[in-house]
Write a structure and sequence with these properties.
single chain; alpha+beta; three-stranded antiparallel β-sheet; 14% strand
């Protein structure tokens, strides 16, 4: 009988997947990382991944909190 359990969500995303999750192009994602606005996990000399929790924190920090009439 096949296993019908859902696979766990990934903890780390590639640049392409992270950019897609944020609806950004990869170049913008890289610029955000270089500017220190988004953290990344380096795995080995070239592989860079993005923590899903860091992406969520970035979204929360980037939200416009101005109220009506501000």
């Amino acid at each position: 009988m096949p296993d019908t359990a859902l696979a766990p969500a990934p903890l780390l995303l590639t640049s392409r997947a992270a950019a897609k999750a944020l609806s950004l192009c990869e170049k913008t994602l890289w610029s955000l990382r270089r500017a220190g606005k988004l953290r990344a996990v380096r795995i080995g000399p070239r592989a860079i991944r993005y923590d899903v929790a860091d992406l969520q924190r970035f979204i929360e920090a980037a939200k416009d909190v101005k109220g009506p009439g501000a």
